[in-house]
Prior knowledge:
mainly alpha; 5 helices
Amino acid sequence: MSNVYLYLLLALLAGTMMPTQAAINNKMAGFVDSPILAALISFFVGTVALFIYSLATGQTFSNLASARQAPVVAWLGGILGAFFVTAVVIAVPRLGVAMTFSLIVAGQMIITLFLDHFGFLGLEERPISVPRILGVILITGGVILIRRF
């Protein structure tokens, strides 16, 4: 299997994890009676898992000191992740998993047009085009269908 297929499979698998994680975090929120605490528990368990994985794979922690030199924007990933997980835990019981993730995918597609077009944070520039805009419109149509039915 070429690397491209491996990455495609990895991305597809990651996509299946997001709604599954939402349902699991929603279950935790019911037990702790708080979407914030559920998100905190999720991040704590994830942090422990990454720490164990790092140790098991021989990762060295010597590069952590270099993180101090990263620009402020590089530190915002954790805040964005915390917002995402918390927002999903709040939205899923009110909108359902399908509607929540339809809107998430639509939001992702809209922002990716701009991230790619402007090469944000050093990404390769990929201009906005009619087919890409059409793709976002079709996804938005899907969101409308899911909402109505």
